[in-house]
Design goal:
DNA polymerase, domain 1, 2 domains, ten-stranded mixed β-sheet, two-stranded antiparallel ribbon, 12 helices, binds S-adenosyl-L-homocysteine, binds iron/sulfur cluster
């Protein structure tokens, strides 16, 4: 018998499968089993001919990931650590945004809503001073199947029906635009109406600001949303926090954002990690308002989440609120990221790191 040689079936878009599997409608059926029924064995794909099932079984594995551990937080978010076939591991988080509410006769008055935060690399090359993922260095780019597999396993593990609305954010480990090819492939697989059917407008790619890659992504016109991890309003501080700023400074990022195609009803999100005594003063807020002038932007303030040995401190709630009020008073939509999953070490890299320290 032939060995599994072509990797995972989750690496292929439907269009690619239609070229390999004949007749082409079989690819659509296969997509249904994989992405709507979350089936993880070819034997269960009853409407596929036996010979095709055997052929697929011999050539392609299904999900390349295994759940190593999961931690549930008191707010309902669940953080997963996934093991890869090569022995490496990375993480993803399920964040319930809205709970299902039923009235007295059992009718659903508010349906549940989920966001899944996924990783794009094991480790990261960017080396931000505040980030635990950076401490591990760079290990590898995730393949499309290792990216897609995160969402599939989380949906299956939580019995989330295929028609339930799910948002995707590329905000786990790694810099998605440093793994553009596989991330774009995953976006296409997520979007397929015969599969997970997650509209690109419900997928957000967060980047530390690789301007040339933002431009490339924009030119692909995928319709995905963009989040920029800005974190500082002047190049001097930003270089200290994020060394990548030496190559791509604030002006170059903002220029790339201005040219990025964005749905008329949507905005580019600017993430601003607030660190006590560093960037939470009103002078910074003032400069931020100036920088964002003319951009359809919204700002998300993030509390710095300390970890053992971290060089920075969490800001006070009062300072966060003052910063937020200043932006709002100057016409900028500004939210403060709820500290979802704080008790399970919410920020990227932190579960991985904790388990590594334990083991
Ligand atoms: N590499 C991409 C996406 C992954 S990081 C990026 O940087 O945008 C996801 C988010 O977690 C980023 O906004 C990052 O700044 C934030 N983050 C990293 N370390 C953190 C910490 N200790 N506390 C709070 N947020 C953190
Ligand atoms: Fe990489 Fe993002 Fe962490 Fe910076 S914040 S080191 S870009 S994962």
């Amino acid at each position: 018998m032939q060995k599994v040689e072509d990797g995972s079936i989750l690496d292929y878009t439907k269009e690619e499968l239609q070229k390999i599997i004949k007749p082409a409608f079989r690819a659509k059926q296969l997509y249904g089993w994989l992405y709507q029924k979350y089936v993880d064995s070819y034997d269960e794909m009853k409407n596929l001919p036996f010979a095709l099932r055997e052929e697929l079984k011999n050539k392609y594995s299904i999900n390349p990931l295994k759940i190593i551990s999961k931690e549930e937080s008191s707010d309902g978010s669940i953080k997963y650590l996934f093991g890869l076939k090569d022995g490496l591991s990375m993480e993803a988080v399920l964040l319930p945004m809205k709970k299902e509410i039923k009235d007295e006769v059992g009718k659903i008055v508010q349906s549940s809503k989920y966001t899944i935060c996924i990783s794009s690399q094991v480790g990261c090359k960017i080396g931000c001073a505040f980030c635990l993922t950076a401490k591990e260095g760079f290990k590898k780019n995730l393949s499309a199947s290792e990216i897609v597999g995160q969402v599939l396993l989380i949906k299956k593990d939580n019995n989330i029906p295929s028609n339930k609305r799910v948002n995707i954010v590329f905000m786990g480990m790694g810099e998605p635009l440093d793994n553009l090819e596989n991330v774009v492939k995953a976006v296409k697989i997520f979007s397929d109406p015969d599969g997970l059917s997650i509209s690109p407008r419900r997928q957000t790619i967060s980047t530390s600001g690789l301007s040339h890659q933002i431009k490339k992504l924009g030119e692909m016109e995928l319709g995905v949303l963009l989040a920029i991890s800005l974190h500082a309003v002047d190049d001097e501080l930003r270089e200290k926090l994020m060394p990548i700023n030496k190559a791509y400074n604030i002006a170059s990022i903002l220029e790339a954002v201005r040219n990025f195609p964005i749905d008329t009803r949507k905005r580019v999100m600017f993430e601003y990690l607030v660190i006590k005594g560093m960037n939470e003063d009103i002078k910074s807020a003032k400069k931020l308002v100036k920088l964002l002038h003319g951009i359809k932007a919204k700002v998300n303030l993030i509390y710095f989440n300390p970890y053992p040995g971290s060089p920075f401190k969490r800001p006070s709630e009062d300072d966060m609120k003052k910063f937020q009020s200043y932006l709002r008073d100057h016409g900028i939509t500004c939210t403060i990221r709820e500290s979802k999953g704080l008790d399970i070490s919410a920020a990227c890299g932190q579960l991985y790191e904790k388990l590594r320290i334990k083991s």
